[in-house]
Amino acid sequence: MSDSTQMAGRVVTLWRYPIKSMIGEELNATDVTTRGLLGDRAYALVDQATSKVASAKNPGKWPHLFDFRAAFVVPPRPGMPLPGVRITLPDGTVLTTEQSDINQMLSKALHREVTLDAAERGQEEVIASSSPNPWTANAEEYWPDMEGLDFRDTVTDFALPDGTFFDSATVHLLTTATLDRLRELYPSGRFEVRRFRPNIIVQSTSGVKNFVEDAW
Questions:
Q1: Do residues 57 and 139 touch, judged by C-beta distance below 8 A?
Q2: Three-state DSSP class for 211?
Q3: Three-state SS for 212?
């Protein structure tokens, strides 16, 4: 009997984002749990004026989040409390989540009053609660003025999955074939991996420039 299994691609990069909407850390290996890559989106910044999670999906309010970089001080381990996170500010200043003035320093850098919140609190409440939506964070998204969208040139709210800081799915996979197809469709655009914030980047073996993930 012949083996009809065909390899769709190979993993070329792994990324984890300890703090939502900041640049994350490239990994050689990681544990994957029911809540995605261990430590992914473990923290988020919360706007004190609105109680909404800071998100790069609203660049008018948060234009510089991609200039911040977050990485765990030591790799997280399954079944253990998450270690601290090292945050590099746009000016090169390095902070850690364990320092007492972290909220003040981040607020100063972002020019907005924010607090650093941990998703573990929400996860514990979801697990322990029998009621629906015991802890749900909300964020904002800007819709550009483009035809075919549900909204145009406006900002809307959206709820994150219960007890998490994910926008939707817990793992985001992206193929190089999709990036190549987007560049082909819109040559003047900039389709950088970091703007999609994937966890797993797969290099397609087919050589086809298309949205191959849709068929998986």
A1: yes
A2: coil
A3: helix
The token pair at 21 is 């909407």
Classify each residue of 118-128 as buried b or exposed e, where b means 16 or more C-beta atoms within 10 Å of its C-beta. ebeebbeebee
81 vs 78: CA distance, rounded Å = 8
| Two structure tokens written together for 122 | 């929400």
Structure-block tokens of residue 52: 């909404």
Strands 200-204 and 138-143: unpaired
Q: What is the identity of the amino acid at 145?
A: D
Report pTM. 0.88
Domain boundaries, the chain: 35-166
143, two tokens: 């819709």
Q: Which residue has the higher pLDDT, 216 or 63?
A: 63
